[in-house]
Amino acid sequence: xxxSPALAISAVLFTLGVAGVLLRRxxxxxxxxxxxxxxxxxxxxVALAQSLGLGGQVFVFFVMAVxxxxxxxGLAIILAVYRHKQxxxxxxxxxxxxx
Amino acid sequence: MTGTTxxxxxxxxxxxxxxxxxxGTLALARPTAKTLVSIIGAGVLxxxxxxxxxxxxxxxxxxxxxxxxxxxxxxxxxxxxxVDFALQVDQLSLVMLLVVTGVGSLIHLFSIGYMKDDPxxxxxxxxxxxxxxxxxxxxxxxxxPVMFVGWEGVGLxxxxxxxxxxxxxxxxxxxxxxxxxxxxxxxxxxxAMFMIFWSTGSLDFDTVFAHAPTAxxxxxxxxxxxxxxxxxxxxxxSAQIPxxxxxxxxxxxxxxxxxxxxxxxxxTAGVYLVARCNLLFALAPVSxxxxxxxxxxxxxxxxxxxxxxxxxxxxxAYSTISQLGYMFLAVGTGAMTAGMxxxxxxxxFKALLFLGSGSVIFALHRAYHHTHSHEDAQDMRNxxxxxxxxxxxxxxxxxxxxxxxxxxxxxxxxxxxEILTAAFARGSVEPIWLVFWGLSLVAALLTAFYMTxxxxxxxxxxxxxxxxxxxxxxxxPWILTGPLVVLGVLSAAGGLLNVxxxxxxGEWLHHWLEPVTHPGAALRPEPPLVSGTEWxxxxxxxxxxxIGIVGAWxxxxxxxxxxxxxxxxxxxxxxxxxxKWYVDEIYDALIxxxxxxxxREVLWKQIDQRVIDGAAVNGAARGTRALxxxxxxxQTGQVGTYVAVFVVGVLLVLWRAMS
Lengths: 99, 659
Hints:
Number of helices of chain A: 3
Largest sheet of chain B: 2 strands, antiparallel
Number of strands of chain B: 2
Structural class of chain A: mainly alpha
Oligomer: heterodimer
Helix content of chain A: over 70%
Largest interface: A-B, 12 and 9 residues
Strand content of chain A: under 5%
CATH topology of chain A: Helix Hairpins
Structural class of chain B: mainly alpha
Strand order of the largest sheet of chain B: 1-2
Distance between the termini of chain B: 84 Å
Distance between the termini of chain A: 57 Å
């Protein structure tokens, strides 16, 4: 009965995440937006698990575990970049483009 | 397998091959082991000659009418083309086998003395053994491809031995010239082979000759083309017009090589080929006329050039071309026996002449070496009166001269007379042969003249070698004169092989070769002559020879000659003959220069440098670079851009999946 609002919220959250990844420059904010997208998907899983069985809920735990690992590695990378560049803005991270 | 000594035929080519391997190894490992090299080099040849005699006598006992073919292994099995590596023993190949190994043995013995101070002694014998191996493959091969292997192999050895003293650029160039001229001929041989396979479905001699009369229309385009292409191969290998110019240059090689390869054996391969394919040539009367005509023309043309050469070996080279012309006149006329007979006697007397000239050059070279002079040891103007110093060589070379001039009863008289008679007899059916007969008769006159000139200038009159050098002129050692004596006996008595019925002879060679020559002769019988005409022809031939010799003796004044370094150039017609009718220059202007120009200006500077280097190679690089330059704006390096493109891509995929 709460399926439609739940799906609507997760769609809004996911879109916010995508927009954030596209528009923001700060690596930490982008990272948070990626988490937002993951959690939007988690919400969809949980909402649909009510009618389709427990598989979705189990999958949420997997996603959370992966997100935790990603957070650890991602933050470490951002930290390393900051030490090197004194900035976390993605605009400054364009070494692959020559000149 | 016949169960007789004939089965041992494989030993004949195998022995020289073994000699090549051993001498080749010695040439690389121990080039100073000259005694061992001599024993191996000459030993394998003498052993091969022994094998040849044994096979010959065993074959005589078989009374075989058909060739005995030994198939050793399947060589080219491709669909319907089945070529075995097979050797064939028959009357014709046995004649060639005996000549090659017999004369070859004598020349190997001569080489031991002639080359003894040469640093490349082992290499020389390795090449010489290899040559004999390939020559035996050529004459014993039972199919066109096997023969072709020998044909190419002797060409290779010829190249290696002409350029034996390759540190002189002229010698290396002479080798290349021989090789390239022969390529033109080999192209003809190959095209002929393709056409033979196309029309008869086989390349084995026995199958081809069995199928040819039914598969090919007599006088048709196909058979005419096949035989003309075969003859193109012959003009290359056997130095006939238009491809003869390599042979005089081939004299750059050591003199025994000139005797073995460029007089006695290799250059006669073309005559052997026509005799072997006598059936095919009998089916193509036009080709036969071409063969005879080119032969007669070459005989005369080369003889005119020989009149004015000063290099003793050049005279003999042109003489060889001229005599080969006689052989082609014979086989073109259909007188295969006469051609083969002249081939054999020519091998004897021309080998003798070359080895004799080698003995003369050896003596002059030694004399000049003593006085540290750099005069030309081959120029006849530096010789004269040598009969006093080297009587054996002089006497033996006189025998060969009388033989080649056609003085009875020497061998050349009988063989050359048989050719002239055959040509005259053919003239009663096809009148064009009377022209050929006339040409070759004039050539016979010139032959007698230039050979007498060579003898007078070399051995008679005053000596022009030089005051100091005269004391060092001696007869050559026995290892040189020994083979000369044997060849002298053969040159004098070689005619006994085929004494015609006119002199109540048995015509042994004629009967011996009959099983081979019969198919052709049956299609194109030799017109008969009454014995009165034959006696008249003999009289004319002998008269011409005598006029040539006596004329030379009367006209030439060796007393007026001066040594080469002080001699002035010829004038007028003599100058044209001295410069060989400027044929080399004409070929140079018509073929070599345009070809070089085309290669340099068009193929190199335009096609290679502009099209291949410029457009293709550098163009590809430039194109890649431009493409990269055009696409580089896609790569911003900004993560945001990549993510945006990624999202757009995902949306597109989703949109496609939904709709």
